[in-house]
Design brief:
The chain is α/β, with parallel strands linked by helices. The strands form 3 sheets. The chain has an 8-stranded mixed sheet with strand order 1-2-4-3-5-14-6-13. The chain has a 4-stranded antiparallel sheet with strand order 9-11-7-12, covered by helices on one side. Helix 9 crosses helix 10. The protein is elongated and about 80 Å long.
Amino acid sequence: MTADQKNKQNTDAVHIELTDELRAIRRELHRHPERSFKEFNTSKYLRSILEAHGITILPDPMETGLVAQIEGAHDGPQIGLRADIDGLPIHEDSGLPFPSENEGVMHGCGHDLHMTSLLGAAFWLADHRDRIHGTIRLIFQPAEELGRGARAVIDAGLIDGLDAMIGTHNNPDYKPGEVAVGFEPMMAGCVRFRVNLHAQGTHAGYPHRGTGPMGAMATMILALQTIVSRNVSPFHPLVVSVTEVHGGDVWNVVPAEAGFQGTARYFHREDGDLAAERFKQIVESTAAAYGIGVDYVWDDFQRPLVSDHDLARLAMKHVPSYAQLEPIHPSMAGEDFAEYETKTRLLFAFIGSNGQPGCADLHSPKFVGLDEEIPTAADFYANSALEVLDYLRQ
């Protein structure tokens, strides 16, 4: 690229300022987080802000969340920009001067930043419809933290007809002004599993008179660790974690019931399928060997998040005109934005939100996302929207 071409690219790029209005919006949202599928006041507040800027709200059947739309001055494809809106059941200990006022609920994943960034992009796009060749749908999605919000949006028909979806997530491992985007896996596929063991309880002094479940449960939990260590390539990340165990409540009684639950995370579909098969074999064969009954659930509810190859290359080309392009550091956390892949093409990016040594991670009571993340994320939304619309209409 010549110097003249680079200067033209920088001129053409959208640069959205961190205005006093956006700062105030971020603080209002941060002070009033709401749990998944209970974001009633959040939805009302977003509606009022969008309407004040002359942005059309679309009717939808969902109780929380909302969808708005910006019609461009020129005909073209339809795309969606998505931000998640729910908080977490966390007691905030961030030290921010505008902490949560809803006791026991916190925007500990930075969704207040996401909403504010999408609003910033929406304000700019609504004021520059002459640059839009197509239609942009703004999706403020509920219940990402439950992994069910994207599916609710899809089932409501709210992304029908969209040719692509664009999303972001703040990431405290990167500094403000940094954007990580590409076509390799970004966030993991997620599984919830649960096992319930059914045996014959007995007196602890006479274990031979029952078929207590404790030994079987211990064997299963240990054997599940071999799924990763003995079945999957060390070059393919896979996690199987037992996170909760229950059984018995009296010291001298062998219980009749016990169980455990946990999660698996993976980046490659074949690894998720292999883990499911080995999980089934271990649970069923161990229960049979101990002579007890078992029922289980392997809920592979969230696919890995991977951007569309062509859209990712497009983003990697335009990001340097307004931000520092960084390599992707994959996350074992899940993101239900991946669910939209069942209906359309995806583009997703990590936006730097802190980057200070030792800063708290997402979902921590001490998590601090900096205001300076907002303009970079807004720039990504707006620039990507224009670039993807132009790409899709060619």
